[in-house]
Design a protein that fits this description.
Strand content: 25-35%
CATH superfamily: Ribonuclease Z/Hydroxyacylglutathione hydrolase-like
CATH class: Alpha Beta
Oligomer: single chain
Order of helices and strands: EEHHEEEHEEEEHHEEEEEHEEE
Distance between the termini: 5 Å
CATH architecture: 4-Layer Sandwich
CATH topology: Metallo-beta-lactamase, Chain A
Number of domains: 1
Shape: globular
Amino acid sequence: MPGHKITIGNAEVLALTDIDMEFPWQVFFPSIPSAELEPYRELYPECWGEFGFRTDAGCYAVRSGGKTVVIDTGLGPGPHAWLRGATGRLLDDMKAKGLQPDDVDIVVHTHLHADHVGWNTSGDSPTFPNARYYAPKADWDYFNQMLAANPQMTEQVIPLNELGRLEIYDGEITVTPEITTLPTPGHTPGHSSVLVNSGGEKALIAGDVAHHPAQVDRTEWSPAFDVDPAQSAATRKRIVEKLVEEGTIAAFCHFPGEGFGRIVNTEGRRVFQAL
């Protein structure tokens, strides 16, 4: 087990956790009959908890070429009534792993759902005072049309734009010479993954391309929170097949533990093998 950190060539990738979450399976995957879950309960026991589907709001930090890049910022401090009063711990987890808010040069959002932007600001100021923040254009356009239903925009995203700290990105962009964005739409219109490519090695921080490890086998399973379930399933199938073909390490924000692993074919199905 690599713990919370892996190296990809000359880059270092740290797994960070903001908050633990549990949902009834029927809330998250209402269209999936419970009988279809059974083969995956034994395979991924860490994904089951007292209230059903166990997950967390995970984030990543990449140290690359003298820069520190944070990928997503979790759900935020809370307390969150819908999670039985749970509070976020991202900053404490960062500090425990040797990373201070002042160290962060860039924040890249895979998408703009509330559990990926929650620590963007603290009060009226950016939580990461030295960072430029990057948000996908298609998400910026989409969520700005529905502000009443998306308070995270007015609380954690739009203020950064008003402060001149937000960059709206579109498609593939170079964040550092070793870090690029990769469009992976469906979960949201602008959902993007982040590719770390250094020293001949690769890792894909895949955000919410999948939420549960069973989806690497059942790529047609799309959660209720997908904006475009059909596009999400098509994207997931494409990304999973590429990860299997290349043997690339993947990191998923909602997979158990650190979320680092490889997808392999075994016994007639695809399995996520944690590192």
